[in-house]
Design a protein that fits this description.
Layout: E1 14-16, E2 25-27, E3 32-33, H1 34-43, H2 48-54, H3 60-72, H4 74-85
Length: about 90
Amino acid sequence: MPVAQKVKPKHPYIASLKSHWGGSPIITRTKFPVRSVVFYVLRQGMSPEELLKEFSHLSLPLVYDALSYYYDNKEKIDGTWRLKNGT
């Protein structure tokens, strides 16, 4: 039986562009930072559906891909969050 290879998940709706938010990951075609999704959903307790009511240009697949990206890159994103917020 072959050994399972570690496959890096793909996040089709996430990009990092130096021209947007200094290279922090954003939701493509929106300029909405992944860290903002994390802030509203995970830190403020807003549901993804509530987030869509506030930011109607987003969709559930975009929000869930941003959350998935966060969990796959938690240390990196939390590290930049601490640097920017001084905690």
